[in-house]
From TrEMBL:
Pfam families: Jag_N (PF14804), KH_KhpA-B (PF13083), R3H (PF01424). GO terms for biological process: cell wall organization; peptidoglycan biosynthetic process; regulation of cell shape. Its main location: cytoplasm. NCBIfam families: Jag_EloR. Signal peptide: none annotated. This is RNA-binding protein KhpB. GO terms for molecular function: RNA binding. Has an N-terminal Jag-N domain and 2 RNA-binding domains (KH and R3H). It is found in: Cytoplasm. Forms a complex with KhpA. InterPro entries: Jag_KH, Jag_N_dom_sf, KH_dom-like_a/b, KhpB, KhpB_N, R3H_dom, R3H_dom_sf, R3H_KhpB.
Amino acid sequence: MKQITQTGTTVENAISAALEKLQVTREEVSITVLQQEKKGFLGFGAKQAEVEVTLNTPEPAPVEEQQLETTTTGSAEAETAVVQEQEKVEEAEEIPVVSNDRAIEETIKYIQMIAEGMKIEDLRITHEQKGKQVNFYLESEKVAMLIGKRGQTLNSLQQLAQLVANKYSNQFMMVQLDAENYRERRQETLEQLADRMADKAIRTGSRVQFEPMPSYERKVIHQALSRRLDIDTHSEGKDPNRYLVIEPHR
């Protein structure tokens, strides 16, 4: 009895993949759904569908027919060839198609799936690619939900989107998500905050530290203060709790 277990994004996708591997039609098999697909939320808790596909066993031929078949010229060779071809199909593994275009397409699908889980139905996504850097721009009436407090939701979604992009790309890609020009506004806020904190360090004569930030936000502050000779900056801690420190120059 020929039987395989197959997973897929949906039950139908899993069944189609199993039929292709077995090289049979739906009428020739029995199908048992082991698990329905589950989308999950924010990319977590998602589960693929899983099915068990069993090849229906044909009725055994009468002894006379079996004997006749075994004596037919070339029948053994034909049967061997069929078995070998079937083994090749079973051993063949799916090789995912990778390209930058595919990576961008899959990343957009992933972001839209997350937005649907957040009940955001009007999300519009455009993108711009500059070498290995790909910027995705998000627009929605509920854009504040995508940004979150101090950009935390947007930053988390950006990290997940980069993982998806690099799963399908043929070269390393840097992904940045922006929503309603939040990144530019955030950079201006960070630069102003950097000057205030540097002035505080000089005024008090002691070190001051920022709250934990992602690496590119710490980089903004480092660059904003690089022109000042009266203070030093460095980062401490480990991600995701790594933070930046300003100290008066000794």
